[in-house]
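Changelog-adjacent note: as of this version, every example in the card shows the full chain rather than a window. The one below runs 455 residues end to end.
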Amino acid sequence: MIKIRTAQLAAVPSHIRKNLKQIEKEAALARAEGAHILVLPEMCLTGYLIGDLWDQNAFLKECERANEKVAALSKGLTIVWGSLAVDWDLINDDGRPRKYNAAFAASNGHFIYPEGSPLPFTVKTLLPDYRCFDDRRYFTSLESLALEEGKRPEDILAPFVLPAGKEELRCGIVLCEDSWDENYRISPMSILAEKGISLFLNLSASPFTMGKDGKRHRMFSESLSRLSIPMLYVNRRGLENNGKDCYTYDGMTAAYDKDGQLIAEANPFTDERSTFYFNQENLTLAPETEMEPTDENLLLPAFRYGTSEFLKAIGASKVVIGVSGGIDSAVNAALYRSILPAENILLVNTPTRYNSELTKGLAAELAKNLGCQLLTVPIGDFIDETADALEGLPLPDDTVHLTGFMKENMQARDRSSRILAALSAAFGGIFTCNANKTETTVGYGTLYGDLAGAF
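Full-length structure tokens:
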């Protein structure tokens, strides 16, 4: 019986040394537990959505050294991990050094080569280029590598034979998209299945999206039942900010039997470690402890986890929120209150003469319900003074006349860029905005007003 341990690491984007420390800890725990194999996620040393860092040679070399250090950790243990591989003798399409999104394996301090391969790693075959992914810009795929060498992907994609105590495990290691193959012309899993493997290991860095886990179960179940081979899926956790969007990774390590049935799933957004036992004779995979499939409604946990990770990443623990008495600011305040203690949240109502007693009362009621302090800062005088100073000033063909709509936008900007920004500095935190991307796409958001704020 082969004992396999998994860890859904929260890779810190671009921080190789921190991630290596995590792997050192996981290797020590796996060895202490008597595991034969430790399986870690895709790009667990570097993070994934790190943009132009992929083009920094010093970063690439640091990653290479870290891969060697992970291999050195494999004394008495087999470690499988996803990371960057570099071939300095070849170039990518952009003329920079050749980079691969790759999977490595090592045992007793040495890299394990896939069968018949001159490379001590396997290369990701299918490179996504949708939503947040831009893999083709930075990496070379196994399919492109095969074409370059005058071969087929079938000629290069090969199983690993992993030492596992007194046994050897012949497995197919695939990286994330390589199992999401229904819209591609080749299937890496089908290629590996024909080469006599007994288990798939899928190393993933797959961001959370609504309903993704359901689609994964459907796709993996269909593929695995057709191939009659079980699978361990190991996904990372954490948050990555590519400058435009923040993406959460849910983990949700999962096991599927050879009939494609989901038999175990780790809790999302947690540092859960899972142990499985694999019997090669009958291809049965079983969790050490019962793991119930998770609730499908993961939207709120994703919001909480992503927001918490964002605050942690920027070193913030206090938040100022403008509350109008409306639903948007109420939802935002409730979200942050579910993450932070009441004393770390400052709610601010900024009324003008146009605000009703009802909305001001609702803002006060919200603060009371959440147990947070509320400041009321009337801003009508500010707006009027600014408007009076501008009204009637000469323009090339006219004079300045501020409409009611323009004054509303002035209010939004005064609230955010003056009041909330100043109070957040005094409070020792950040301020957030109550706008959202749906509003932004239709132009319903005030630049430097509703759209201001850290997150």
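Structural remarks: The longest strand covers residues 78-91.
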